[in-house]
Amino acid sequence: MMRIAVVILNWNGILLLEKFLPSVVKYSPQASIYVADNASTDDSISFIKAFFPSIKIIKNESNLGFAGGYNEALKNIDAEFYALVNSDIEVTENWLQPILTTFKKEPETAIIQPKILDFKRKEYFEYAGAAGGFIDQYGYPYCRGRIFDTLEKDHGQYDNNAEIFWASGACFFIRSAVYKELNGFDGDFFAHQEEIDLCWRAFNKGFKIKYNFESVVYHVGGATLEQGNPKKTFLNFRNSLLMLTKNVPKDKLFRILFVRMVLDGIAGLQFISKGKFKHFVAILKAHGSFYGLFSLQCKKRDLFQNQKYYNTKSIVFKYFVKNITVFNDLFRLK
Q: Of 115, 167, 274, 319, which one is least surrounded by beta carbons within 10 A?
């Protein structure tokens, strides 16, 4: 029997737990279910105890974010596989079995993502992961089914189990042994892109990351931090730079960082042109925070960084200049 733990990170999310816990409990009979609570001040814990007494609760002493919250909670969970699931995810019948089957058949596969569709528009892919993630040379993430803010409708075009570069933290399966070997998420990230960093480190060690279309979940997205929140802008821009510093091959690192910072500057000017001054300030703060963490991140670099971490040189150029908005067109059009 393969032991799997479904772990839901919670912070003041009682409304989400009320809405989405029932599907997790109903469709996960083969799993142990945990809620890892980041020191919530609402009634989340009492709600779980009253209505879902079979769910195990792990209480973190403070709000450690996504990265630190999971790192702390998983120290207390004994399982062969972890399913890290956002509190705003609705799972479907038989969502776990295809994942467990893949793990069993493919020992080299360390991380798996299911098909992630939009809870509000169920015929569309959802922003945070869609049908599996990739990055370009400069660390910009994109997905099969989503490039920047353009979401594709799901009409079966990604109904194949494929190797990907990163799996979404919204619904993230990983072998516990690999999670421990990689020392988990990087707590300095707090939230956003820590799963890409973890997948990149796994990739550098020769592990495979897969997408499995037979497992389907629906994600609300932005339920804890909305897309337009300046704090989200800060975390995304800073963490991209941290991730590049740790994982880009040494001979390319400073050139990649320079280009990325120039592109960040252009993004900042766009925010100004749209009157979004708080987001411009968030980018400035992101760069300042990055400078302060740069030497620490350099010390975290592994001995080996794989040169072939991207399959598209610049997704920014292809999307904004070439007007390529569909993933499959990236490799058909030159």
A: 274
